[in-house]
Design goal:
By secondary structure, the protein is α/β, with parallel strands linked by helices. The longest helix has 32 residues. It is globular and about 65 Å long. It starts with a helix and ends with a helix. The relative contact order is 0.17. The mean pLDDT is 94. Bound molecules: alpha-D-glucopyranose. The site of alpha-D-glucopyranose has 16 residues, from α5 and β12.
Length: 435
């Protein structure tokens, strides 16, 4: 009986034919391009493919995960780059008493914080062009003008939605007396992953983030950038909605800050994978498939108590990661769990993570069909903790793609590390040519 219930729960996370989802995604892409109703967007970046020969010293900012990172990046051409200085600070620090993601903070506070970090990275006496990777939906009318459409990933900072991020940043830099730093490019993190990948490999036709959030950008052959070449467009793929949902997905969505939105993101990204697992676990406990937790201060009753790393440890073979899982289980009231209870948790964790990999593979199939490059190879540059760090995730995406690709071209995945910073520098180098 218990096995049967577990099987039914796992079945809820099985993906309907990958092809059907890929086709639905392709249909939404087409609709967005022709401005028909669609859960996808086609947000222009005003940038095209880099040549790989971009050179110079830039300040690059990565804003969009749990930390803000500022780097001085030297592009050396031939797809080579070096990082000369870097700084990283959390957006929320309980010890230091600030939370830039809460409604009590404003966009001005956010960018004052960023400008202070920029000052620490600068070499005195230099003039710099700056690229900012800002990982939220923005509407752009030029590469350095970007109005924030809405917050995603559960951010609530006030007085920012509807404002131009370029203006907020420029004002904050001026207020700090940093007139020698000129923001020239503001890009989404998917565009940054694309730039970082395409800087080294001309087969890259799309960029994606599989991390705290999820999204994809691609080259759109029918839209020219100021260079005259096809433009990179941000799809805000996390909002893709033509998906089969189960009652856990619906519950998670209902309790989120933006019900009805970011449906794909809520099934695949690091912000939500652990929360889905937590909802299933509460249900398993209620249905007596696993024992109730012991009373403990770190109760899993609180939303978002389970991070995606827990699902990662469940898939790991290494003794170190198994040890981490055991210590997490003890700290959260599951010290009494037997091997067979832990096996149930693993089965659920794997089903949630595998579904994410299948869904992402389906969207990559759709995108790579549309965004051709000249040769036979087509590559998607992918950054983000889910893709880079969850054991077996990238391999599953790859296997699903290999199984379903039909065209004469091959679709490859290119892991990108630190794409947001390198990509911001490459974008700044490209943008300055059109100034
Ligand atoms: C969210 C944002 C999107 C970003 C993605 C990855 O989906 O809306 O702009 O690219 O997270 O960080």
């Amino acid at each position: 009986m218990k096995d049967h219930i577990l099987k039914d729960i796992v079945a809820l996370f099985q993906v309907h034919p990958v092809k059907t989802i890929a086709q639905a995604f392709a249909g939404e892409l087409e609709a967005a391009l022709h401005r028909r109703e669609s859960s996808l967007k086609m947000l222009p970046s005003y940038l095209s493919r880099p040549t790989g020969e971009e050179k110079g010293d830039y300040i690059a900012i990565d804003f969009g995960g749990s930390n803000v990172r500022v780097m001085a990046v030297s592009l050396c051409g031939n797809g080579r780059s070096t990082i000369t200085k870097q700084l990283s600070r959390p957006l929320v620090s309980i010890e230091q008493g600030y939370d830039l993601t809460s409604a009590a903070s404003t966009g001005r506070d956010m960018f004052a914080f960023v400008a202070e970090m920029v000052e620490e990275v600068l070499a005195k006496g230099h003039r710099y062009q700056l690229g900012l990777t800002f990982s939220y939906p923005m509407e752009q009318e030029a590469v350095d003008r970007a109005r924030l459409l809405e917050w995603t990933k559960e951010i609530k900072t006030s007085a920012t939605v509807g404002k131009d991020i370029g203006v907020l940043l420029t004002e904050a830099l001026k207020e700090r007396g940093l007139g020698q730093v000129m923001p020239v490019a503001i890009i989404n993190d998917t565009v940054a992953a694309f730039m970082a990948g395409a800087y080294v490999d001309p087969a890259v036709c799309a960029g994606s983030i599989c991390g705290t959030g999820h999204n994809t950008c691609c080259i759109e052959p029918s839209l020219p950038a100021p260079s005259g070449l096809p433009m990179v467009v941000n799809l805000e793929a996390g909002n893709f909605a033509l998906l089969p949902e189960n009652h856990y997905d619906r519950r998670l969505d209902r309790l989120s800050l933006d019900p009805g939105k970011q449906r794909l993101e809520k099934m695949v990204s690091g912000k939500y994978l652990g929360e889905l697992f937590r909802l299933v676990l509460l249900d398993l406990i209620e249905q007596q498939l696993v024992p109730p937790p012991q009373r403990c201060p770190n109760s899993i009753d609180k939303p978002y108590m389970v991070g995606a790393e827990v699902l990662s440890w469940m898939r790991a073979e290494s003794p170190l990661l198994k040890e981490r899982l055991n210590s997490w289980l003890s700290q959260h009231g599951f010290a009494h769990y037997q091997d067979h209870d832990i096996a149930v948790l693993r089965t659920i964790g794997n089903a949630i993570v595998d579904r994410a990999a299948y869904l992402i593979a389906a969207t990559f199939l759709a995108v790579s069909e549309r965004s051709g490059t000249s040769g036979n190879r087509r590559a998607v540059a992918v950054d983000g903790s889910v893709f880079l760090h969850i054991p077996g995730f990238a391999e599953t995406v790859e296997t699903v793609i290999r199984k379903h690709q039909e065209k004469p071209h091959t679709v490859e995945l290119m892991p990108v590390i630190d794409g947001s910073n390198l990509g911001a520098a490459v974008a700044a180098a490209q943008a300055k040519r059109y100034k």
